[in-house]
Specification:
5-stranded mixed β-sheet; binds manganese (II) ion; globular; 17 strands; about 475 residues; about 20% strand; alpha/beta; 15 helices
Length: about 475
């Protein structure tokens, strides 16, 4: 081999080796390190982790997914303080925060959570938050089978345990935790999470600057099978369809184009609901939660509509990352059944906050009609007292991307010269002199309707957009 070629090859090999080595260190560098020695004793106090974890262990032959709908064996094996990759955009690391950020009360509610995931949640908070920002960690044990799951953890400094005397569900449990909190800022956290580097400061900073902001982190994915920590996309926000089914969706393209700083907050129409930070006075002022909602589900819509419509805002902060074990099923049971509870809760949200647009909720979820949902009088009174905006305002200003089903129908006044189209009975049409104007126009003459307002017993012409076809229809329900 000629010397020149050999030398080039050699340089190449050395170069790629150098890149490999630097990548290795870079990778190492970006892993959130844990000052292990300092933590032991200092952060967990007299707490005996080994005894706590070995008190509940999977027996040989047991299905590791049975009780928690994730691989318990893998979670138990991992230990409570593993390093995870720092999944933030690199520019997040150079952001600075106020030196006088106020502390927060962390509220974690759970029902029969696995000990290893619950402990890892708590330890990740203690390891990756500035100690001065953690006022306390309030565990609300929603009547788990074993009171010790919660009680033993109070040996860890700052950890408190409140236990419900009966199953209340996550909504009333969170309210209990919030009422017991002594800090001015509340941080709600799920019980199978791992918070990432500097997760807390960006959220507290935003709430400190404006107490009406309710902020969420980007929620990374912890695999339910092998507990790998996986970065979630930073281009997502919370959305929903008319059946009030939550979904992650892409940020609208115009907003995406306008984002030249990946560390900027993302406005979101709704939050997923499990993890967020909110000023305590603002939480109380806005009426906490609808405590007539049971167990789980729908409370994130109710809170999100209320925050936006009553003067606040919701955002996702890309520089705050928290991992969460997303599951395919609920491991615990709903005393009233899963579907019924979800319908009751979302129906309460729709009835209180969605005004005339609730018809689309019922159209998308016909089974909700006629299902009991209890009295909503106090929530309606709250909405009046807070003088909140309409749901129409919310759709126009916060979530214009949500397609309104009836906008495919065109209601209009049809006129030719001085003549207007007029209904004769319910079947036929004729041209006649235009009578009246605006709302004083007789019902027999086709009126100009706003897309959503259709008076009871009024006729309207339904024009399908696809075909050049129209028909006369009678409004079934008043949507005005
Ligand atoms: Mn969860």
């Amino acid at each position: 081999m000629p010397v020149l070629v050999r030398r080039r090859l050699c340089v190449r090999v050395l170069l790629s080796l150098w890149i490999d080595i630097s990548l290795f260190f870079l990778e190492k560098w970006s892993v959130t390190h844990v000052p292990h020695v300092e933590i032991e004793g200092q952060l967990v106090g007299s707490f005996d982790e080994k005894a706590y974890l070995s008190g509940k262990q999977l027996k040989p032959g047991d299905d590791p997914y049975r009780d928690h709908a994730f691989n318990l064996q893998e979670s138990d094996r991992l230990g409570s303080e593993r390093a995870i990759r720092d999944t933030r955009h690199y520019r997040c690391a150079s952001i600075s925060f106020d030196h006088d950020l106020p502390p927060t009360s962390i509220i974690i509610t759970f029902h029969n959570e696995a000990r290893s995931t619950l402990l890892r949640t708590i330890k990740s908070v203690l390891m990756r938050s500035p100690p001065s920002l953690i006022q306390e960690i309030i565990l609300v044990d929603d009547f788990s089978s074993d009171p010790e799951d919660c009680q033993l953890l109070t040996q860890i400094p700052k950890v408190r345990c409140l236990r419900n005397g009966r199953r209340e569900g996550l909504i009333r449990s969170r309210v209990r935790g919030a009422n017991a909190a002594s800090a001015s800022i509340l941080t709600f956290l799920d019980s199978h999470c791992e918070v990432n580097a500097d997760w807390l400061q960006p959220m507290i900073q935003r709430v400190k600057e404006d107490h009406t902001r309710v902020v969420s982190p980007i929620i990374d994915v912890i695999s339910l099978d092998n507990f790998a920590y996986l970065a979630a996309s930073a281009d997502l926000r919370g959305g929903f369809d008319w059946s009030l089914h939550f979904k992650w969706e892409q940020i609208p393209i115009e907003q995406k184009m306008a984002r030249n700083d990946p560390t900027q907050p993302i406005r979101t129409p709704v939050i997923a609901g499990g993890i967020f930070v909110m000023d305590k006075n603002w939480f109380n002022h806005l009426g906490q939660y609808d405590t007539h909602m049971d167990i789980w589900g729908g409370e994130n819509f109710e809170l999100s509509f209320r925050v936006w419509m009553c003067g606040g805002s919701l955002e996702i902060l890309p520089c705050s990352r928290v991992g969460h074990v997303f599951r395919k099923r609920h491991p615990y049971d709903f005393p009233e059944g899963n579907a019924l509870t979800y319908i009751k809760n979302t129906r309460r949200a729709a009835e209180v906050w969605m005004d005339e647009y609730k018809q689309y909720y019922y159209a998308a979820r016909p089974s909700a009609q006629g299902k009991a949902f209890g009295s909503i009088a106090d929530r309606l009174a709250l909405r009046r007292k807070l003088n909140c905006n309409s749901f129409r305002w919310y759709l126009e200003n916060v979530y214009p991307e949500l397609r309104i089903p009836e906008q495919e129908t065109v209601y209009t006044l049809l006129r030719q010269g001085g003549l207007c189209l007029e209904t004769h009975g319910t079947e036929s049409l004729a041209l006649a002199e235009c009578k009246g104007s605006g709302l004083n126009r007789p019902q027999s003459q086709v009126r100009v309707f706003t897309p959503l307002c259709c008076g009871q017993k009024a006729h309207y012409i339904h024009i399908t957009l696809q075909a050049r076809h129209f028909s006369i229809l009678l409004c079934q329900i008043s949507t005005c």
